[in-house]
């Protein structure tokens, strides 16, 4: 059975000792690991959290985004240099936490658009920055799992085909890809085709319902998703990413205007759902 994780963004984007009780309860449910958002500036908080999670026998993955002043696809040499520095900073914080996987759409600035489709040059620019960042990540034992987002959050990579193209442009063994069922539900015509496309570089999976609520209670084609993951022999994390309005600043930043499901309902029901689907499809 693949390892099952839970992203604590359902409660908070902050790196804080206040998350300790949440970590304990996730452990009691049966989770193998937790995923944290890398954004808070307090370096010591990451180190404390990394030790706390390690002491409880859990593993860690991390997720990260960049803004317009640190975008790898910017025409500005200065901005691209800032992008590289920011990604290196995220690698350092992931190392502090003990994370071996840093996922997210940090190939380009989140929710920043150019009012046109992506250009070949932008894939090349992102590839250069990510290759250099991947070399740095390799020294820390961190693998990048870049993410394709839906058209309302990103224009560089909306599909697995575009994401595979970007990973090949980066051309580094530590620069790989992830698959998110929420975004795929919007952008892909077939989970099976998308996963076949990304399989050679797939390093992480987010289990996320179409409404960002409890997995299994929405419209995602879960049987196709799990069967496809089993067919390509995916052996990485199955990490639930769900959102709420518990952290208003974060919720406002990503357009979460209502509660989808209570976080603990998502955590408890979602864990059982993944176990059941994994057993059903031999994953």
Structural commentary:
This protein is α/β, with parallel strands linked by helices. The chain has a single domain (4-281), classed as Divalent-metal-dependent TIM barrel enzymes (TIM Barrel), CATH 3.20.20.150. The chain is built from 10 helices and 8 strands. Strands 1-2-3-4-5-6-7-8 form an 8-stranded parallel beta barrel, surrounded by 7 helices. Helix 4 (120-140) packs across helix 5 and helix 7 (191-198) packs parallel to helix 8. The longest helix has 21 residues, at 77-97.
Features:
45% helix, Xyl_isomerase-like_TIM-brl, alpha/beta, 8-stranded parallel barrel, 10 helices, 283 residues, single chain
Map the helices and strands.
Elements: E1 4-7, H1 20-29, E2 33-37, H2 43-55, E3 59-63, H3 77-97, E4 101-104, H4 120-140, E5 143-146, H5 160-170, E6 175-180, H6 181-187, H7 191-198, E7 202-207, H8 222-231, E8 238-240, H9 248-253, H10 263-281
Parallel strand pairs: 1-2, 1-8, 2-3, 3-4, 4-5, 5-6, 6-7, 7-8
Helix pairs in contact: 2-3, 3-4, 4-5, 5-7, 7-8
């Amino acid at each position: 059975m693949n390892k099952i994780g839970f992203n604590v963004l359902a409660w908070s984007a902050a790196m804080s000792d206040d998350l300790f009780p949440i970590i304990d309860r996730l452990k009691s449910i049966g989770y193998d690991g937790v995923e944290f958002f890398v954004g808070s500036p307090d370096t010591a908080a990451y180190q404390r959290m990394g030790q706390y999670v390690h002491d409880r026998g859990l593993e860690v993955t991390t997720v990260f985004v960049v803004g317009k002043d640190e975008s790898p696809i910017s025409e500005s040499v200065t901005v691209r240099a800032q992008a590289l520095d920011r990604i290196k900073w995220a690698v350092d914080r992931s190392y502090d936490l003990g994370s071996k996987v840093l996922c997210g759409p940090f190939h380009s600035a989140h929710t920043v658009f150019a009012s046109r489709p992506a250009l070949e040059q932008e894939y090349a620019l992102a590839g250069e920055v990510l290759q250099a960042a991947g070399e740095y990540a390799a020294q820390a034992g961190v693998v990048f799992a870049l993410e394709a987002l839906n058209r309302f959050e990103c224009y560089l990579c909306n599909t697995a085909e575009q994401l595979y193209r970007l990973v090949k442009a980066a051309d580094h063994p530590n620069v790989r890809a992830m698959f998110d069922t929420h975004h795929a539900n919007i952008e892909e015509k077939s989970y099976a085709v998308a996963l076949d496309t990304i399989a050679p570089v797939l390093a992480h999976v987010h289990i996320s319902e179409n409404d960002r609520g409890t997995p299994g209670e929405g419209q995602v084609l879960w049987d196709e998703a799990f069967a496809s993951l089993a067919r390509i022999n995916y052996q990485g994390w199955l990490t639930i990413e769900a959102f709420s309005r518990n952290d208003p600043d974060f919720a406002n930043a990503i357009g979460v205007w209502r509660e989808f499901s209570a976080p603990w309902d998502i955590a408890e029901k979602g864990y059982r759902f993944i176990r059941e689907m994994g057993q059903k499809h031999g994953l």
